[in-house]
Amino acid sequence: MNRINYLITGASFAILSGIVGCSSKKENKATQDTINVKVIQLGSAAGDNAQSIVYNGTLQANKSIDLSFQVSGTIKSLAVQPGDFVKKGQLVAAIDETTYRSQYQAQAAQAKLAEENYKRTRTVFEKGSIAEIKMLEAKSNFDQAAAMAKATYQNIAHTKLYAPESGYIGEKNAEVGATASPGQPILKLLDTRSVEVLVSVPENEVNRYQTGDKATVRIEALNNEELEGRISEIGVLSLNNSANYNLKVKLDNPNQKLRPGMLSKVVFNSKSHHDHAGSSEIVVPFQAVQVDEKGNQYVYVAGSDNKAKRKQVKTGELYINGMAIKSGLESNERLITSGFQKLTDQSPIAISK
Fold first, then answer.
1. Would you say 50 and 280 are in contact if contact means Cβ atoms under 8 Å apart?
2. Half-sphere exposure (CA, 13 Å, Cβ side) for 194?
3. Buried-most residue among 2, 52, 177, 291 (CB within 10 A)?
4. pLDDT by residue (tens digit) across 49-89?
5. Which domains are seen in the chain, by residue range?
């Protein structure tokens, strides 16, 4: 009997030891590794950089002119190519004037004949040999013939196309030998003595700006050279029924180095008119804001117990130094900015300096 109790007791001890051993292994396995992170102390959006929103912009000519003939005919010369710079009054294209020259010569001959008839009739009238009405009819015929000859001559003048302004040829829409029609664009002339930067602005931001507000434009094609301009126009119609509106920033271009189509970054500094980063608004680095599979935005902050806390946030405007947080964070919290990719809620953390 004692032997049986001993065996049972021994077996029980072995089973308990196994259970304890397994539990210890599970606890050790459940223990999470401490993750090294970096943090920043949050603050409000006070600061000059927080007042500036960065937009993408595209340069366009201040004035775009479609050049076309006023009469029809076969194009016999096109003296320019896209990209060429032309001066005001320079001949850029011409059509065959043969038909119009012949018409003018015929009209000029009719006008000369009418003039001679008028002169003879007036002489006879002055002698009292004919009624005044005959002299007036002759004068009317002469005036009509002269006017028609003058109008026909204008057709000859319109066979030549001159640049109305100095600028660059942006497009060529016809070739020599083609038939030009009145009003049909042959060339596009771009007046680039000044240029405009076209910026698309969301509807919730467009009313923050006014005509005349300053803007800094950084031109990517010119080694990010910074130029200062001013808002010249604010759109009143949305773009293609979207929630965006166009703003135009005018830039001087005295040396013609700014060309239509160049890409740019635009910063509007509307601090003098609108404090659009509210005193309660917090700005955080872009990379610290993450999005889960449901589309919720969140960040991690460092708790006083050295654990990471996941906090869902609502974001606002994009500023030059980060993204505004409308809700979900307090200004006295420590935001995790590095190492957050490995974190989950309540992960143990060690703050690196």
1. no
2. 11
3. 52
4. 444 678 899 999 988 999 999 999 999 999 999 989 899 99
5. 35-46+278-351 (2.40.420.20), 57-62+191-269 (2.40.30.170), 97-158 (1.10.287)
Exposed e or buried b per residue across 90-100, where buried means at least 16 C-beta atoms within 10 angstroms of its C-beta: eebbbbebebb
d(CA 75, CA 78): 8
pTM: 0.54
Per-residue pLDDT at 322:
74
Does residue 213 contact residue 229 with C-beta atoms inside 8 Å? no
CB neighbour list of residue 188: distance below 8 Å, 6 or more residues apart = 64, 65, 66, 67, 169, 170, 171, 173
Kindly state the tokens that stand for 223: 């080694």
Taking the C-alpha atoms of 301, 305, 307 and 312 in order, what is their torsion angle to the nearest 10 degrees? -40
Percent of the chain with pLDDT over 70: 83
Strands 185-202 and 244-252 turn out to be antiparallel
**Count of all residues that appear for the chain in the document:** 353
What confidence score (pLDDT) does residue 280 get? 53
Nearest to 69 by CA among 100, 49, 93: 93
- How many whole angstroms separate alpha carbon 249 and alpha carbon 9? 90
Among residues 248, 75, 253, 230, the alpha carbon closest in space to that of 166 is found at 253
pLDDT over 50 (residue 98):
yes
Instruction: Please return the burial class of 324, using the count of CB atoms within 10 Å of its CB with bins 0-12, 13-18 and 19+.
Output: buried
Q: Residue 340 corresponds to which amino acid?
A: F
